[in-house]
Design brief:
single chain, mainly beta, five-stranded antiparallel β-sheet, 53% strand, four-stranded antiparallel β-sheet
Length: 105
């Protein structure tokens, strides 16, 4: 992620590429730029110190995920005290996935 010391571990299916990842502090989101040539799935592990979503009680809240500006269904497949892993389906010609949390660095 540009201008941070965070590393995002990810896996993207098909002949698709994750080109870039940037934080947007105003929208509290992680913006991922993709180059896609087929439908696919992006599985991404995000450090909680970089982006997180918490309820006032301290429990985890859900992220909001936008795929090319449209709200998308995703699955949270793993949660630890250090990071959260989500899986996002996308279609051919997808350019941007935005993950919106409640807190970012």
């Amino acid at each position: 992620v540009t201008n941070t010391n965070f590393t995002l571990n990810y896996n993207i299916s098909g002949n698709n590429k994750l080109l870039d990842a940037n934080m947007d502090s105003q929208s509290k989101s992680l913006i991922l730029s993709l180059e896609t040539t087929s439908n696919g799935i992006l599985t991404l592990t995000m450090p909680r110190a970089m982006i997180d979503a918490k309820l006032p009680t301290g429990n985890d809240d859900k992220f909001y995920v936008l795929v090319d500006g449209q709200e998308s269904i995703f699955q949270e497949i793993n949660t630890t005290t250090i990071d959260r892993t989500i899986s996002i389906s996308f279609t051919d010609k997808t350019h941007v996935i935005e993950i919106i949390g409640a807190q970012i660095i």
